[in-house]
Hints:
Blueprint: E1 11-16, E2 19-24, H1 40-50, E3 89-93, E4 99-103, H2 109-124, H3 157-160, H4 178-187, H5 193-200, H6 203-206, H7 208-216, E5 243-244, E6 259-260
Amino acid sequence: xxxxxxxxxxxxxxxxxxxxxxxxxxxxxxxxxxxxxxxxxxxxxxxxxxxxxxxxxxxxxxxxxxxxxxxxxxxxxxxxxxxxxxxxxxxxxxxxxxxxxxxxxxxxxxxxxxxxxxxxxxxxxxxxxxxxxxxxxxxxxxxxxxxxxxxxxxxxxxxxxxxxxxxxxxxxxxxxxxxxxxxxxxxxxxxxxxxxxxxxxxxxxxxxxxxxxxxxxxxxxxxxxxxxxxxxxxxxxxxxxxxxxxxxxxxxxxxxxxxxxxxxxx
Length: 266
């Protein structure tokens, strides 16, 4: 991590799924969008500063995917910029007893929940109980996880292995299997192609071009179109949904979304 760049922001590089994720902290925006996009100057900022520390200067051609999110920050009196605002969550209790929790981040979700419940017990005058979630094992926990590419499924991995497509990858440049698409539709409530590529696997986040090809169809390139061909009766039927295999994840981001009217089938 680079703790301070030329404008005071940090820069971090994190190993992730056999790739390196390089990013920085937030940039203020005037308007919030349902599908936020990285601004060109943000991408330029990251590439410019990464070049100061990497052996080879990265270019847009080296970027496999781009993503950005919106961070909810709690406004503070007398603070001009977002960089100085706290990233912690805040609890407020109104005169009527309504409890509101704002701010926070994904990595502290359990602590946010604990603090909210503790506050509710206090406001309601109920007996406090010790939190039990700190050591709670989540679904899929395993002492002996499977090997890649099914390692992330933990105790569910043996149930994926017999599925059709367990020996076939979605795309030559992606580590994910066709069986994972079936599992996502059957067991993980995936309803669109983007659900699978971005939210059940990390395909779209590690290689946007390969993900787009895997979704688009058999004419888009060798070994592609694997998702489109999964509408077999053995998988069942999900409601039709136009999946936006996000062009916003490409670098540089294009102007419009790529629309793919696919249907996942269970």
